[in-house]
Write a structure and sequence with these properties.
The protein is mainly α and 144 residues long. The chain is built from four helices and no strands.
Length: 144
């Protein structure tokens, strides 16, 4: 028995949304890896001070892969990423050896990473983006 077009379309849309959510989760893990890598390059004293936040990011990224509720896990990872990034910026701001330009660069780079993640999550909620098809000329008109 053939399924009605609506049901098939709904299934295809759901599959596309799941694929987008999977891509968003993958990106969340990549962002976590990038932020965690930046943490790793801090001085030993700063790493030690921020270690609980970095461990939280790492654990949430690992947990995301097998989470029964991937949306909640992704939100938790995003919050952990943001918390670690904010703490790293605050730490740099308090460090007298870090200049204003270096601090601004750090803020911009971390913000860019977090914005990439936020953009992917919005796309996952919307579903896959549609490519607009060019309009066809009315039938009976010649193409040049």
């Amino acid at each position: 028995m053939l399924e009605p077009k609506q049901t098939v379309a709904h299934r295809l849309k759901s599959a596309g949304r799941a694929a987008s959510q999977g891509a968003a989760s993958t990106l969340a893990v990549r962002v976590a890896r990038a932020i965690h890598g930046r943490w790793w390059r801090l001085s030993a004293a700063e790493r030690k001070r921020l270690e609980p936040l970095a461990d939280d990011v790492r654990e949430r990224a690992l947990d995301l892969r097998g989470a029964t509720d991937p949306d909640a896990a992704a939100r938790g990872l995003r919050a952990a990423n943001t918390k670690l990034a904010d703490a790293m910026v605050e730490s740099a701001r308090e460090d007298p050896s870090v200049g204003e330009l270096e601090l601004r660069r750090l803020r911009e780079e971390l913000s860019r990473e977090l914005e990439r993640l936020a953009g992917a999550e919005v796309e996952a909620r919307r579903g896959p983006s549609r490519v607009e098809q060019p309009e066809r000329p009315p039938s009976g008109t010649a193409r040049r």
